[in-house]
Amino acid sequence: MKDSILPEGALIEFVPQGDYVKVSAVDPVTKTEVSIVGDPSAGEEALKRVAVRKLEYVLSRQKPGGRRKSQSGWDF
Question: How far is CA 52 from CA 19, 70, 72, in A?
Fold first, then answer.
Protein backbone atom coordinates (compact mmCIF):
# COMPACT_ATOMS: atom_id res chain seq x y z
CA MET A 1 0.00 0.00 0.00
CA LYS A 2 1.25 3.48 -0.85
CA ASP A 3 2.37 5.93 1.83
CA SER A 4 -0.28 8.33 3.02
CA ILE A 5 0.06 11.99 2.10
CA LEU A 6 -1.24 12.74 5.59
CA PRO A 7 1.82 12.18 7.78
CA GLU A 8 0.13 13.99 10.68
CA GLY A 9 -3.01 11.89 10.30
CA ALA A 10 -6.51 13.28 9.93
CA LEU A 11 -9.09 14.42 12.43
CA ILE A 12 -12.29 12.39 11.98
CA GLU A 13 -15.80 13.28 13.14
CA PHE A 14 -18.92 11.09 12.91
CA VAL A 15 -22.33 12.82 13.08
CA PRO A 16 -25.44 10.60 12.91
CA GLN A 17 -28.18 12.15 10.75
CA GLY A 18 -31.21 9.87 10.93
CA ASP A 19 -30.71 6.94 8.55
CA TYR A 20 -27.18 7.98 7.56
CA VAL A 21 -24.00 9.28 9.14
CA LYS A 22 -21.94 12.28 8.06
CA VAL A 23 -18.19 11.71 8.32
CA SER A 24 -15.82 14.69 8.21
CA ALA A 25 -12.05 14.41 7.78
CA VAL A 26 -9.73 17.37 8.44
CA ASP A 27 -6.04 17.72 7.64
CA PRO A 28 -4.61 19.37 10.78
CA VAL A 29 -1.78 21.02 8.83
CA THR A 30 -3.68 22.72 5.96
CA LYS A 31 -7.08 22.82 7.72
CA THR A 32 -8.63 21.30 4.58
CA GLU A 33 -11.93 19.58 5.37
CA VAL A 34 -14.01 17.11 3.40
CA SER A 35 -17.13 15.18 4.28
CA ILE A 36 -19.05 12.17 3.07
CA VAL A 37 -22.36 10.62 3.99
CA GLY A 38 -22.83 6.90 4.32
CA ASP A 39 -24.81 4.03 5.74
CA PRO A 40 -24.00 3.48 9.43
CA SER A 41 -24.15 -0.28 8.88
CA ALA A 42 -20.97 -0.01 6.76
CA GLY A 43 -19.01 0.44 9.98
CA GLU A 44 -16.82 3.25 11.27
CA GLU A 45 -13.57 1.90 9.79
CA ALA A 46 -15.00 1.65 6.25
CA LEU A 47 -16.53 5.13 6.44
CA LYS A 48 -13.34 6.57 7.89
CA ARG A 49 -11.29 4.98 5.11
CA VAL A 50 -13.51 6.56 2.42
CA ALA A 51 -13.36 10.00 4.07
CA VAL A 52 -9.56 9.87 4.38
CA ARG A 53 -9.22 8.75 0.74
CA LYS A 54 -11.37 11.72 -0.31
CA LEU A 55 -9.23 14.08 1.79
CA GLU A 56 -6.05 12.68 0.23
CA TYR A 57 -7.56 13.19 -3.24
CA VAL A 58 -8.50 16.82 -2.48
CA LEU A 59 -5.05 17.54 -1.05
CA SER A 60 -3.34 15.98 -4.07
CA ARG A 61 -5.28 18.35 -6.35
CA GLN A 62 -4.04 21.47 -4.57
CA LYS A 63 -1.04 23.49 -5.68
CA PRO A 64 1.78 24.17 -3.22
CA GLY A 65 0.61 26.87 -0.84
CA GLY A 66 -2.89 25.41 -0.63
CA ARG A 67 -4.36 26.87 -3.84
CA ARG A 68 -6.43 24.66 -6.11
CA LYS A 69 -5.37 24.00 -9.67
CA SER A 70 -7.23 26.20 -12.10
CA GLN A 71 -8.85 24.51 -15.09
CA SER A 72 -9.72 27.82 -16.76
CA GLY A 73 -6.33 29.52 -16.84
CA TRP A 74 -7.62 32.38 -14.67
CA ASP A 75 -5.17 31.62 -11.88
CA PHE A 76 -4.58 34.97 -10.17
Answer: 22, 23, 28
